[in-house]
Amino acid sequence: MSTTATMGEMANSAVEFYPKGTRGRAGGGRADGSLAGGDFGVTVQELRELMELRGSEALQKIQDGYGDTEGLCQRLQSSTTDGLSCDPADLERRRQTFGCNFIPPKKPKTFLELVWEALQDVTLIILEAAAIISLGLSFYQPPGKESELCGDVSGGAEDEGEADAGWIEGAAILLSVVCVVLVTAFNDWSKEKQFRGLQSRIEQEQKFTVVRKGNVIQIPVADMVVGDMAQVKYGDLLPADGILVQGNDLKIDESSLTGESDHVRKSVDKDPMLLSGTHVMEGSGRMLVTAVGVNSQTGIIFTLLGAGEMEEEGKEKKGKQADGAVENNQNKAKKQDGGVAMEMQPLKSAEGGEVEDREKKKTSVPKKEKSVLQGKLTKLAVQIGKAGLVMSAITVIILVLYFVINTFVVKGHVWLPECTPIYIQYFVKFFIIGVTVLVVAVPEGLPLAVTISLAYSVKKMMKDNNLVRHLDACETMGNATAICSDKTGTLTTNRMTVVQAYIGEVHHRVIPDPGQLNTRTLDLLVNAISINSAYTSKILPPDVEGGLAKQVGNKTECGLLGFVLDLQRDYAPVREQIPEEKLYKVYTFNSVRKSMSTVIKLPDGSFRLYSKGASEIMLKKCSYLLDANGEPRSFRPRDRDEMVKQVIEPMACEGLRTICIAYRDLSPNPEPEWDNEAEIVTELTCITVVGIEDPVRPEVPEAIRKCQRAGITVRMVTGDNINTARAIAAKCGIIHPGDDFICLEGKEFNRRIRNEKGEIEQERIDKIWPKLRVLARSSPTDKHTLVKGIIDSSVVEQRQVVAVTGDGTNDGPALKKADVGFAMGIAGTDVAKEASDIILTDDNFSSIVKAVMWGRNVYDSISKFLQFQLTVNVVAVIVAFTGACITQDSPLKAVQMLWVNLIMDTFASLALATEPPTEALLLRKPYGRNNPLISLTMMKNILGHGVYQLVIIFTLLFIGERMFNIDSGRNAPLHSPPSEHYTIIFNTFVLMQLFNEINARKIHGERNVFDGIFSNPIFCSIVLGTFAVQIVIVQWGGKPFSCAPLNMEQWLWCLFVGVGELLWGQVIATVPTERLPCLKEAGLGLEPGEEEGEELAEDEEEIDCAERELRRGQILWFRGLNRIQTQMEVVSTFKRSGSFQGAVRRRSSVLSQLHDVNTISTPSHVALSTATANTSPAPGNAGGESVP
């Protein structure tokens, strides 16, 4: 039965998910756990119970049940060496029995649910109410004879025989509300669909290495089945649960499941249990897959969360009731059998501590929660909304007062009961006018523009090799002021080749001929390289004849293996002779050691250690050096200094990476203490030092030049030698001779930024970072310190926005800390991708420049839209307001206003948000974080065009009937037929907006507004389409749109005035902005000088105090913001992945599907409830972390 069904049936409680007998059910295939074994000697249930144990308990269970791991492997009909056969029938049978490696996503919202959500918009509800009242009253026919007693208020309507058409306006408002709702719902639906597509794309790209039929192959994670033999290595994110069969120095970060930050050492004889969702931090090994999909530890948590989510759905979004949820669930949990508590074990600490803290912090959010742009937009929307609300309230009050005074005081009529419906109809009409003013004032199109713009950019960025995981990263990139880039693979091609070597005391500037080398030295060299490198690193024949050989695995190791091939030897026979199982001990590479060593047992029982690593580090451990005859001679510190000067520095200055290869023989008795690494890896004999070239990517220097021109500082942060780094930085153009810059090594950097107590001081960092261009021999912590230092710095008036690139597991913290983290799609480890915001699918620095371009484009698109929208807002509100106050009737009717709202909101956001980026975007400096959203130039345009439109409309309103020689439409009685006069006003207004939309394409005061207009077909088709619809509305819209058909001459005048917008735009462009001190920039970001740390709290406060004001009677507008916020939630899609920090922090790409587009914020307390239910934290064990 399907998991979804299971979830549905059992959604009664987050914890009561697996009653005792059915805990095997969530597997695929069988409903009853006991039968789930099928033709295998083990059931889903047994495997699930096994995977819940740790350490010695697990080993005991394996021994009792299966003898050993080999026995379990046989029961699963698999082999520890060859893995599964590739027989499709067998794989299918496994899927039927043990389930697929796939966690079903939460069901997306249906179209109807989205329609219902769109209907929640308060302004729309008010319009609906007004329309319904208006409809009801129009069907009410007051007795005719008293009509003159009610004054002349209703006169005129009956003469036209049009009284029966009164219902049309109400119906038309309802119709336009339906349109708005459908458009909104469709937009939400397509956004959701796009995000899901994006998610599944990320998932399909995730591959894992398994052994099948004895061959090592990569398969999509979803294709893994129970019984597979998977190869795990440094940097992997485990996609399924399994048992370690063979391991080298394997260390796992299980914090995502247990909350313990210490790395757990895994070994076949002590703790072989590997769990899905955990990260491999060191070492390598092979594991037998024992649980996949919903039966894996991660899957169990997700199904619980899924069940919990349904339960919590009705609750308040903000988790205000989290406390209640905790208590209820604690009680429920007490009634449960112990089994569930065990099952929940992993959840406990993962959530407990963090979620509770989070509740304390007033549901505060992680740094990346609210992007700069969103903050500015929310603020702006609040400002505009308040203004709109005030205007609409004043409009209604003035209309009502004027009507009452005019009718009952000036004309002296008495309010008669039978006249009530007629008067009420007037009041309803005034109310409708007030609401339309509000509707036009509130820019609901803003979130739509943001979303469309971001979604469009994300889609297009895919083509530019940027896979965006967190939507707001795209827009943040436009503000980037600094990029800290890795060297290897990002700035360089990551195709390593050995080009120089120092062997037998001779420095060979080209690869030596094998005949020139001593045979013993050559044999040692070949063995040292072949054995002491990951067996996953290989060199394969090229795909195309005559192409370069393919390098698979670690690129540095591939360069060394290539060196073996260049010496006309082969590494494969050596590896066959000593397979991976025979390696006695492996010290894998990590960022602290900066070296890798392997111990093998020689035939005579003694041990030999091969070691390779960064040359200056390795040479300190060398006491001997092989001479020209292949004999070791002593190697003293004096020799070392000379070698550094004569060999290593010259190599490094040519931009080569230097690697030293060495060995040591160890006696078997007494057997060395292998855990004491410092004693073992010392007194080595140096075989060779090689210089590896990693050429700069040809397109990088140009890309860096573009960045510098765009006001972005590029810094190189690398683990390489400082000379190598400096040489490459000069080749890339990061540093130029004669510039004022500094290049530091990690040690020196740390010395300069720390005080006497060894604490990092921000002032000290501030002295360094502005000039720092290269940080060499840096550790991941240095990278993190630098990024944090730049972000927290207050030396420059604008807060720096930092992008970081990284590929290794160790880059995780820096990628997380940065405003935008770029992970490498090809070379990057899963951990790095997990921590990143954007994945570069081609690992190329020039793709980052594209991301900057798209980011700035998003920002510009939204500014263009704002400039357009605010002009319409200002004009429409003022026209409706003054028109209503002077003529008692808004010149623009409710339905017309809604049509204007539709063009300017939905269509304009589509048209302006899909402008493609141009190279010109890279010619200006980044907008700062504190810069206002609406610049002085935009303000000038908004007010300038506003003045033009108001002058035209008021001229038409007050003397239009004389100009065109038609009947005046002013003071028309209720239900009178549409007048040509008001139709001309409406038509002119819409045409001016259309031409102003073309003006809005440029926001920096450029003159040529048509520049590149044909490169955006969407824009052209929307402008023409709107124009066509406008013709239809005017000529045939009739009563519903309050339009009378116009003749050719009138149309030409309207068009002429519309085109005048373009000419007027040129006039405005001529006025220098500096001359207009009266303009105030709106939509400011943070107040300058405000601490970054307070930014978030400040934003939260901003909204909270707005909510408080709302309780003082401003409910109307502020809830209207609701729609803006829901749509913004969509924009926050991926960002919210932080909301269940713990259990879902490791939301590997496979699992990310669950993060439903809109409800990401809801279930943060579900986990907590189930978590706290299990155990109260042991005393002294902070934050409820699991006690081992």
Can you tell me about this structure?
The chain is an alpha+beta fold and 1188 residues long. Helices cover 49% and strands 12% of the residues. The chain is built from 38 helices and 26 strands. Strands 10, 11, 14, 15, 16, 17, 18, 19 and 20 form a 9-stranded mixed beta sheet that branches. The longest helix is centred in the last third of the chain and has 43 residues, at 845-887. The two termini are 36 Å apart. Mean pLDDT is 75; it is low at 1-37, 154-163, 308-369, 1083-1120 and 1133-1188. InterPro entries: ATP_Ca_trans_C, ATPase_P-typ_cation-transptr_C, ATPase_P-typ_cation-transptr_N, ATPase_P-typ_cyto_dom_N, ATPase_P-typ_P_site, ATPase_P-typ_TM_dom_sf, ATPase_P-typ_transduc_dom_A_sf, ATPase_P-type_domA. This is Calcium-transporting ATPase.
Question: Layout of SSEs?
Answer:
Elements: H1 3-9, H2 44-51, H3 55-66, H4 69-75, H5 88-98, H6 111-119, H7 122-139, H8 167-205, E1 207-212, E2 215-220, E3 229-233, E4 241-253, H9 255-258, E5 263-266, E6 273-274, E7 279-291, H10 297-312, H11 322-335, H12 338-360, H13 372-410, H14 420-441, H15 445-463, E8 466-468, H16 471-476, E9 482-485, E10 497-503, E11 506-508, H17 519-531, E12 538-540, E13 550-552, H18 555-566, H19 572-577, E14 585-587, E15 595-601, E16 607-614, H20 615-621, E17 622-626, E18 632-634, H21 637-653, E19 657-666, H22 677-680, E20 684-693, H23 700-709, E21 713-717, H24 722-732, E22 742-745, H25 746-753, H26 762-768, E23 772-776, H27 780-792, E24 802-806, H28 812-817, E25 820-824, H29 830-835, E26 838-840, H30 845-887, H31 894-913, H32 936-964, H33 980-999, H34 1017-1036, H35 1048-1070, H36 1092-1131, H37 1141-1145, H38 1164-1174
Parallel strand pairs: 9-21, 9-24, 17-20, 21-23, 22-23, 24-25, 25-26
Antiparallel strand pairs: 1-2, 1-3, 3-7, 4-5, 4-6, 4-7, 8-26, 10-11, 10-20, 12-13, 14-15, 15-16, 16-19, 17-18, 19-20
Helix pairs in contact: 3-4, 6-8, 7-8, 7-14, 8-15, 8-31, 11-38, 12-38, 13-14, 13-30, 13-36, 14-30, 14-31, 15-30, 15-31, 15-36, 17-18, 20-21, 21-24, 30-31, 30-32, 31-33, 31-34, 32-33, 32-35, 33-34, 33-35
